Amino acid sequence: MRIFFTGGSGKAGRHVIPYLIERGHRVVNADRVPLDLPGVDNLRVELTESGQVFNALSALAGLDELDLPAVPRYDAIVHFAALPRILIEPDCKTYRVNVMSTYNVLEAAAKLGIPKVIFASSETTYGICFAQGETRPAYLPVDEEHPTVPQDSYAMSKVANEVTARSFQARTGADIYGLRINNVIEPHEYARDFPAYLDDPSLRRRNIFAYIDARDLGQMVERCLRTDGLGYQVFNVANPDLSVGISNAEVRKRFYPDVPVKREMGETETFYAIDKARELLGFAPEHSWRNELRG
Hints:
Elements: E1 2-6, H1 13-22, E2 26-30, E3 41-43, H2 50-57, E4 76-79, H3 91-112, E5 116-122, H4 153-172, E6 175-181, E7 184-185, H5 189-199, E8 212-213, H6 214-226, E9 232-237, H7 248-255, H8 275-281, H9 289-294
Parallel strand pairs: 1-2, 1-4, 2-3, 4-5, 5-6, 6-9, 7-8
Helix pairs in contact: 1-6, 2-3, 3-4
């Protein structure tokens, strides 16, 4: 597939793009900073400017396409570009950049007839990660039906983007899938960070004790690219196990004593439910911190 990938130089994108290239896709990385990776085409784009987005999405992917009779249309957009959390820029700018860049991408996709958009939403939409003080889930495990009522600018922007995506999908009938991505972990971070999480599980409370390996996120994006006809969907994206060493029951006892449990859960099962991604996409994460630390 010919894929326009925004924000590919970021923490998640620099792992997802190689995963896609290895599987034969052609990827243009639209970012302010190029990704130094063989096989990727880079294009500097200011995504908050609508004209630049339309131009980039209707342009050549590389000089080799000059030999084609016409400029091909992109098969899909993977939109990961964003200010990645609060407290990098003022809240008003975080909201504006994330909302306007996503609107511009979705509008251009709709008007240029691009049939699929996969966009990065976030675990923060559930209102727990960046809550002031402590906010607990309404129930466990947290699935895609859980309320999304955040109070911070970053998560607000992601909820607004989901509403915008649903509206464009209703207009066009294209496939638009939102990924509520949990805390992305790169391979080198297991040895660096997880021993502390084993010593003090409370460090993982704001991430609902979950995580997603960056390589498994690549698999998730690939599954979305290969699965057509689902219309508008949002998916939780996480690995199937908790990010702490104590059991599911012990975490509930210590941190969620009064939170309702909707169903029986496995001994190490994540509270960030991925049942929907497994059922509709065949998502099957392959990496676990347990194996990485043992290795």
